[in-house]
Amino acid sequence: MDLIHPASAADVMDAMSDANASGRRLLVVGRRRHLDKGNPADVDAELWTTQLDRLVSYEPAEMIVVVEAGMRVGELGRVLAEGGQEWPSDAPPEATVGGVIASGASCVRRLKIGALRDTVLEIRAVTGDGRLIRSGARTVKNVTGYDLHKMVAGSLGTLAIVVAATQFLAALLLQDFADNTARAAGFIAGVVISPIIFLGAALLYEDQVARLRRR
Length: 215
Ligand SMILES: Cc1cc2nc3c(=O)[nH]c(=O)nc-3n(C[C@H](O)[C@H](O)[C@H](O)COP(=O)(O)OP(=O)(O)OC[C@H]3O[C@@H](n4cnc5c(N)ncnc54)[C@H](O)[C@@H]3O)c2cc1C
What we know:
The protein has helices spanning 9-22, 73-81, 97-103, 110-113, 148-152, 173-192, 195-214; strands at residues 2-4, 26-29, 45-48, 55-59, 64-68, 85-86, 120-126, 132-136, 161-168, 170-171. By secondary structure, it is of the alpha+beta class. The model has no long low-confidence stretch (mean pLDDT 87).
């Protein structure tokens, strides 16, 4: 099987045009964590997105990041943590952003932060005949055009190859969680070593001993 390892959107366009012209079936591959989902089919070549891993822009004040599709979730997390933000996907660190979007897998915090596809503001993608398309915009409030990018989220690579995406970010909940955990631990430790607790335990113990003696 052929392996295609594009380093740019233009390489992806060339690969798709060639495949389209020759009738070869391509499977787009990120880090292979979710390849068994959907309806796996026989293919002639794999197109790996892992070289498309650049950070295009990060604007913490706008809570927006633009990355190429092959960027690892873990690497993106490290960049965003410096701005006190995260892309709330909870996917494994080695998964690619494009793979997570194409899988459409929301994280367990979905009820609080919404579905994964709603964090995708814009995508740049290459169609089956090798054209580069853009859907959405690098802004949260955008009502122009069709939400094709929402359709691509969860399409498992069947509609287009995502080459870059703009994502809406959240404040780093993990930090809140860590702070809350530290506060909770401090509170519990305070309660456990409190003299009132010791006194209460001693009284209970005495009461139990007295009851046993009476039997
Ligand atoms: C909360 C949570 C926890 C998870 N925990 C785990 C876990 O513990 N272990 C685990 O293995 N997975 C886990 N997953 C799933 C994991 O997120 C997916 O496996 C991941 O999204 C796939 O990324 P990948 O780069 O490996 O993509 P791949 O597995 O390589 O591809 C996944 C699908 O997307 C398509 N695709 C890939 N890249 C693109 C692209 N650029 N454009 C278009 N289509 C593309 C592929 O053709 C394939 O259909 C979890 C997901 C969530 C939300």
